[in-house]
Design a protein that fits this description.
Layout lengths: L1 E9 L2 H24 L7 H7 L8 H23 L14 E5 L3 E4 L2 E4 L3 E6 L7 E9 L5 E8 L12 E6 L5 E3 L4 E2 L4 H18 L5 H35 L2 E5 L3 H6 L1 H6 L2 H7 L1 H15 L2 E5 L23 E3 L6 E3 H15 L5 E3 L19
Parallel strand pairs: 8-11, 11-12
Antiparallel strand pairs: 1-5, 1-7, 2-6, 3-4, 4-5, 6-7, 8-9, 9-10, 12-15, 13-14
Helix pairs in contact: 1-3, 4-5, 5-9
């Protein structure tokens, strides 16, 4: 299995200057390749002869710069094949470097990088397995982070447990499950909206290119960083709650983009709350935690989960303002979100429609159209 762990690092002033110099060299190589439409790392030896300063950067780092362009072009090609409107790769500054296979050494809390030097790293948790790749990055708030990609030879065994839960994601609260547990929406953006609006207004009044504008830009970036940290903290705790307590977890496979762009959502002013909820990230968090623990996550088609009665199956259209489900046929009365969670769980157990299963990090092996198969591993 592959693991990614991120740590804060504290380079000295001299090491920091060498890192910035490395970013400049990587930026030159990236923009040179885009300008000349050359996407093979075989050009690097000749490029180093023409520009000897490129030898100040580790060879694998420059190779990864060229390979990253190829990956980006392939991603744009796939999006274009799906009918999406895509642009082209533009010249930009590079703010990260990738060390792979060689050029790095971790000794205690000291990280050594080739052509850069040694720096202190805050190892807040142990590194699982063997280190395969190291990515060092400088963010917009002038903080340094190191992402360590490592591999372990074993994969967790699937849990033979029988505890199931269905989870409905909504905006009245963040989520409601079949056991009646409700997680309130954190509304991280709303909490800092006034402070962010004032900081952005101050930024707009600063003179372009001035030192005060650069300082204010960092203040705005720190507010955005705080929102992101709070959101990630909530989603980590939320996903850990379910992975620790249940063996089979059923979630809605929500399509976020159509929801945000729909006219009804815009008229209700819910687009910002949907984006702030970060449902896709929540799904990814719970998926990879379940993969590491050998648990199952089922992604269910959300169609009619709110309108159908869990008890008798009668379908009744509801407005967003209608928060209680009361079936006119069987009289089943519960909250709208609890009824949806129960329908999601029913779909996962009965395997109705197309259900995608993610387990043990092997998406190809555990992805299947299960039809009406019986529940269980």
């Amino acid at each position: 299995m592959r693991h990614v762990t991120r740590y804060r690092t504290y380079p000295s002033h001299a090491v920091e200057q060498r890192l910035f110099t490395g970013f400049t060299r990587c930026t030159f190589v990236r923009n040179y390749c885009l300008e000349n439409k050359t996407y093979r790392d075989s050009i690097l030896p000749n490029l180093k002869d023409e520009h000897p300063e490129l030898r100040e950067v580790h060879s694998k780092v420059l190779q990864n710069v060229v390979q990253q362009i190829v990956h980006n072009l392939r991603a744009l090609k796939k999006l274009k094949a799906k009918g999406r409107m895509v642009g082209k790769l533009r010249k930009k500054r590079v703010h990260s470097m990738i060390y792979e296979q060689s050029g790095f050494r971790l000794t205690g809390n000291q990280l050594w990088l080739s052509k850069i030097g040694e720096m202190r790293i805050e190892l807040s948790r142990p590194i699982p397995g063997t280190i395969k790749q190291i990515v060092i990055k400088h963010n917009r708030t002038h903080k340094w982070f190191v992402s360590i990609i490592s591999e372990t030879p074993d994969t967790p065994e699937l849990t033979p447990g029988t505890s199931w839960v269905g989870i409905d994601l909504n905006l009245e609260n963040f989520s409601t499950d079949t056991d009646g547990v409700i997680f309130e929406h954190p509304h991280n953006v709303r909490k800092v909206a006034k402070r962010l609006r004032r900081a952005q207004w101050k930024l707009s009044k600063k003179v372009l290119g001035s030192r005060n504008r650069r300082k204010q830009r960092v203040r705005v970036a720190r507010i955005h960083e705080q929102v992101e940290n709070r959101r990630n903290d909530f989603l980590h705790k939320w996903s850990r709650y379910y992975v620790d307590r249940y063996d089979h977890i059923a979630l809605e496979d929500l399509k976020i983009r159509p929801m945000v762009e729909s006219l009804e959502t815009k008229l209700c002013g819910r687009s910002k709350s949907i984006l702030d909820a970060a449902w896709y990230k929540a799904k990814e968090f719970i998926r990879y935690k379940a993969a590491n623990a050998g648990k199952y996550v089922y992604l269910i088609d959300p169609a009619y989960t709110t309108q159908d009665c869990f008890r008798c199956g009668y379908r009744e259209k509801k407005d967003l303002s209608q928060r209680t489900h009361s079936c006119p046929i069987c009289g089943y009365t519960v909250t709208r979100d609890l009824n949806a969670a129960q329908n999601i769980l029913k779909k996962s157990i009965c395997r109705v429609g197309h259900t995608r299963i993610y387990a043990c990090g092997d998406q190809d092996r555990y992805t299947a159209d299960l039809g009406g198969a019986s529940p269980g591993p």
